[in-house]
Amino acid sequence: MVKHIIKFSIPNILNLLIGVVAVYILTRVFGEEEYATINIFTATITTLWSALCFGMDSSYIRFYNEPPQQEDASVLGGKLLGLVTCIFLISGIVSYVFYGEIISEKLFAIPDKAIWRAVLLAVGGQIVLRFLGIAYRMEFKSKEYGIQRVVLSLLNKFGFVVGAIFFADIISVLNTNAVCVLAFALICFFSQKGKITIPKPGSSFKGYGKVFKFALFSAPILLCVNLNVSISQQIISKKIGLGAVGVYSSASYFSGVMSALQGGFSTFWAGFMFANYKTEQERIKKVNDYVLLALILFFAFFVLGKDVIFLLIGEKYQLAKDFTPMVILANILLFATETTVYGIDIANKTYITLIGFAIYAFINCVMCFELTPIYGLRGAALASAASGVFIYFYLTFFGQKNYKSIISIKKTVTEVIMIILIAMIDFCCRGVVRTCGILAILFVAILMNLSIIREIINISGKYLADRKRRK
Predict the structure, then answer these.
(1) Can you give the pTM of this predicted structure?
(2) Across all residues in the chain, what is the average pLDDT?
């Protein structure tokens, strides 16, 4: 299991490095308003593809090993992608022809449908790549999956820089990025023939009721997460100004780093859970302890070293240093739910997750709307953190009701409180008080997990010894 997690983490570590280089370049090439436009563009694409998948991607993961009518998994993927593609093409053409200019003005304050065209091209590419990526990860083909994700990350980050080299206006920069993503999606689609079998017109969907039901309640979940980001950006833009979105997005970039690390784990973990939840429960419980310890260590060292880390960010964006840990907190806690939430999906009760994420988005948007005019970007960061705390405890409560994946509830809650305290101490304190407070939490966390640390060292030692013998 450790070997597979490491393999699937490699592309995310590479993406992390790509992101570090990209943020260094982007925050220097583009001004605050241009950088804000790029981040709104990216968030809009992510929100749209997650909405237009209608949960079919989640159903593809859930039923990959148990397809209806004992069909091949490639047929399941083809039918679901075919449905999504048809809906996307119809809605995309209608929105572009009749409302493209209006939508562009509302979202980007630029009344030019060329921006909306760029969004749609990129969304189409992301939808295709989403299904192709699932096919690789469910077959545990880490090498192929990794190459695909790394190339996509390069295009997503440096497509803007390439556009900036050849074009002076931001609209052309966005279109360059979109064309690169769509072209890569088409190349991957034709190179992965056989992984997804596109159905013929009139293909039967007999037995797909449970697949569509799962998708129905899954669809709004990812949408709520991504819409959350988009709405927050729009609130900040209207309440403070477009330039403030650029500053806040530089903090959100580090949340993206956290999401990249989460991706390496969850890419493997979803497949492992659905394949082994009946036979590997004790092993699964241990992973919760490993993950929480890793998150405490990562978060504490990030906060302690943020003065150095922020040298990567352009001078105009240094204000974000004061509230970045609060912004990251929500992503840290979402990562932590990876080991506590799967009971909901195993029981096919995705409506519970949907309700939770709807409340999560509501809390963030309302608090952001109320606090931003008073406390500025620090208020938006507080809203993000509060919604993250809520969603962790909500999902963990219902996840554990349906499938036990925690050894000790008391220990888990204590460690989650430690993570929250790290963010709060950084937010409220400065200097020696802040450093001593975080070090104290770190010391207690290590004492609580000495047996876990010894176990991780032993597992790592055995893994390295096995590799040496094979060589």
Answers:
(1) 0.69
(2) 83
